[in-house]
Amino acid sequence: MPFWDSKEKSAAYADGGSPDYHDSDIIYTQEGEIAENTDQLQRRLGNRQIQLIAIGGSIGTALFVSIGGGLVRGGPGSLFLAYLIYACFLGLVNNCIAEMTVLFPVSGGFIRLAGHFVDEAFGFMAGWNFFIYEALLIPFEITALTTVLGYWSDHIPAYSIPIACIVLYGLLNILAVRAYGEAEFWLSGGKVILIFLLFSFTFVTMCGGNPANDAYGFRYWKSPLAFAEHLSTGSIGRFEGFLAALWSASFCVVGPEYISMVAAEAKRPRIYIKNAFKTVYWRFGIFFIAGALFAGIVVSSKDPTLLDVVNGTGTGGGTAAASPYVIAMSNLGIGVLPHIVNALLVTSIFSAGNTYTYCATRSLYGLALEGRAPKIM
24 pLDDT exceeds 50? Predict the structure, then answer.
């Protein structure tokens, strides 16, 4: 049954002791207070957990490793512009999702809102598309985690990591949502530490704080050129390089949809979810746009090691060794930081897979509530 057609009554009260009114699952209350929703989900996620989920819940290997592909194909200038432009457009999407989700904090998030505000067929398409996308990303992250752990040893049984991940993801998502929220709080904290560690490394070394005492600054924006040619030559080649960088940005820069998915299980969605959506702009600016800028500063787009990794002819692809930052550390003769980066990358990948599992199950549940998937789901 569509959420706007449900007729459940609210037990909550607002100003002056009068009953709150509601539109379906939405209980309108004072200062964002809301009763348990009508979709059998419990509101147990607090502000602390939601904020960290908003900041780092969906950040995986793309920002730290895969970004090197966009750097090679587009150059530092194209990479920075691509992430800037894509983040600006996604900021507009964030505005729309924020307004709808705060008004209707229902299970299934934006995929149910798509059916309400656009068309039932569009909601069906969006829901199944998002479910398949999230479900396919889970084995992707498990594979990436297996590869990253191979940075230290090649003797880890190939089956052990997938089995461990499946069990842990299952436990964290079968238990109360508070367990998922608490796990994401600490795992996302590791991502934030990793991001600022890499940013600090870039700033210190570009100013000369490295074993070679080389203050390289923006050297790699000048030689080679900031806008690299890809596939073709001349202006067309540089434009194709920008499009390749834009493709990298489209895979890396995400966020508003994941906040929408947790709205149905937030304690005070009118306050906590609204605040979480506000942090998205800071996350785009600090993590993604600055991340693209620093990746282009710290290593050359024509670095032989980076080229070999992107072209598939080198070793270490998919591990921290493929990260532009780790390649820069190796070039500068820094031997300890790569292991720290790889360790924090493990937590980042595991967290991303956990978030994808959560969103896949919740999107399927939302589809089932609308009759767009079998009710048994």
Answer: no
